[in-house]
Design a protein that fits this description.
Number of domains: 3
CATH superfamily of the largest domain: Chloramphenicol acetyltransferase-like domain
CATH topology of the largest domain: Chloramphenicol Acetyltransferase
Largest sheet: 7 strands, mixed
Number of strands: 27
Structural class: alpha+beta
Number of helices: 9
CATH class of the largest domain: Alpha Beta
Radius of gyration: 27 Å
Shape: globular
Helix content: 10-25%
Oligomer: single chain
CATH architecture of the largest domain: 2-Layer Sandwich
């Protein structure tokens, strides 16, 4: 007998609600086949089978609230593993190589809280021969791009989800025929239906979905359920809440499109927003709607940092194998200032303020597909060289679209360097649930009055945007002054002053 328990739910999450059981007692299950879905106040978590067998008792029924590591069900040993689908079940669009089996290509694990993706590119066509682990296609989620390798060698006989298709986390993407003997197929999951049936009166919706519909005043009849039997899930309500208003009524958050002359319309190009761009837009707007955001400014003389960098950059690169940039100085200065003003490194959770006794520094990076914020974990305990190496590695992975979900979660404060694009001044937007973000800008020679004389100095404007709900003006100004002091005299960092 094997126990099925609640997995780790994520940072600060201690309980969940059993939303949907995909299996019932007596059903045969395969290893890693999805048994049930849990909902927390932040994410939806799928629970896979830890072993093959027959599902015995279900201890936690749909609607039950369970804690971390609570017992959900038991799997009994038996004739158990759900059989792989026969090759005949998959319609063949191209002849399969003889002497092999059909293997389904499934959507891989997308990461915590990610429930669907869009097929962006197919690298292979139907009829192509593929090697095991050769890249077949690329999926795009609202946070990262995911490459899908071939689970076995053979011939690509069918593409179930063409480019542009939105698929859920358990959907089938394609079929490989003529797979070599011994190649194991992932347990088949039924392809997501093109449109989930509307929830009927005798189908119980997810508790969190009912709560959200009541809070937002959403009619259940207007929500399309994607759960089992048309069950309405929390994500369905969120999508309905974000959906644009009908054409008859102008959307309250966006002005109607201005009339366009026919000859101008013919010269326009309409491109659908990527899922990443849609998420960026939604999160930034949510940040403005939620936080009491305010920005305070200061300026810093970068002469001391530039002189120190020029003096040691060759030795630094020779010893550590990475260039000495400005970001390590700013990271160190911010970590130093956050110790004195901890509320800038905190977040609001309901009616509580959560102070972080560590600094996970988010470093905003522009990529061809949009802005992402990889996180340098425990930056406050890292050396200059460790920070530079981490920033270089994360930046490259961001540009290549290789960042994982874990690499973009858990940040406590963010640095945004608009100066690399020539920005002289800006007001950065908070990256929720963080309460502070520092905007760096272009270094520009300006005349400054120093000791009664006008001299030319390399100056940079700094902008700290902060959540005024927990950060007072005094704290914000103090933070910026400490950053300025540390950069204008880097020796203060060594002396912890």
């Amino acid at each position: 007998m094997t126990e099925v328990r609640v997995p780790t739910l994520g940072e600060s999450v201690t309980e969940a609600t059993v939303a949907t059981w995909f299996k019932k007692p007596g059903d045969a299950v395969a290893v890693d086949e999805m048994l049930c879905e849990l909902e927390t106040d932040k994410v939806t978590v799928e629970v896979p089978a830890p072993a093959a067998g027959v599902l015995g008792e279900i201890v936690a029924a749909e609607g039950d609230t369970v804690g971390v590591d609570a017992l959900l069900a038991v799997i009994n040993a038996g004739e158990g593993a759900a059989p792989a689908p026969a090759a005949a079940e998959a319609p063949q669009s191209a002849p399969a190589a003889s002497g092999g089996n059909a293997v389904d290509v499934m959507v891989p694990t997308l990461g915590e809280s990610v429930t669907e993706a869009t097929v962006s590119t197919w690298f292979k066509a139907v009829g192509d021969t593929v090697a095991q682990d050769e890249m077949l296609c690329e999926l795009e989620t609202d946070k990262v791009s995911v490459e899908v390798p071939a689970p076995a060698a053979g011939v690509l006989t069918e593409i179930v989800a063409p480019e542009g298709t939105t698929v859920d986390a358990s959907a089938k993407l394609a079929v490989i025929g003529g797979a070599s003997a011994g190649a194991s197929a992932a347990p088949a999951a039924a392809p997501a239906p093109a449109a989930a049936p509307a929830a009927s009166a005798d189908v119980e919706n997810a508790p969190s979905a009912n709560k959200m519909m009541a809070e937002k005043g959403i009619d259940p009849a207007s929500v399309t359920g994607t759960g089992r039997d048309g069950r309405i899930m929390k994500e369905d309500v969120m999508k309905a809440a974000l959906a644009p208003a009908p054409a008859a009524a102008a959307a309250p958050t966006a002005a109607p499109r201005a009339p366009v002359a026919a000859e101008d319309e013919a010269r326009e190009e309409r491109v659908k927003m990527t899922r990443l761009r849609q998420t960026i837009a939604r999160r930034l707007k949510d940040s403005q709607n939620t936080a009491a955001m305010l920005t305070t400014y200061n300026e810093v003389d970068m002469g001391a940092v530039m002189e120190l960098r020029n003096q040691y950059k060759a030795e630094f690169e020779k010893k550590h194998g990475v260039r000495l940039g400005f970001m390590s100085f700013f990271t160190k200065a911010c970590c130093h200032a956050l110790k004195e003003v901890p509320e800038v490194n905190a977040e609001i959770d309901g009616t509580d303020i959560v102070y972080k006794n560590f600094v996970h520094m988010g470093v905003a990076a522009g990529t061809p597909t949009g802005l992402v914020v990889p996180v340098i974990r425990d930056a406050d305990s890292m050396s200059f060289a460790e920070i530079e190496k981490a920033i270089a590695e994360k930046g490259k992975r961001a540009r290549d679209g290789k960042l994982s979900m874990a690499e973009m979660q858990g940040g406590t404060f963010t640095l945004s360097n608009g100066g690399v694009y020539g920005s002289l001044m800006s007001s950065p937007i908070l990256n929720p649930p963080q309460s502070g973000i520092l905007g760096m800008h272009k270094i520009q020679d300006r005349p400054m009055a120093i000791n009664g004389e006008v001299v030319i100095r390399p100056m940079m404007y700094l902008a700290l945007s902060y959540d005024h709900r927990i950060v007072d003006g005094k704290g914000a100004v103090t933070f910026l002054v400490r950053v300025k002091e540390a950069l204008e005299d880097p020796r203060r960092l060594l002396m912890d002053l």
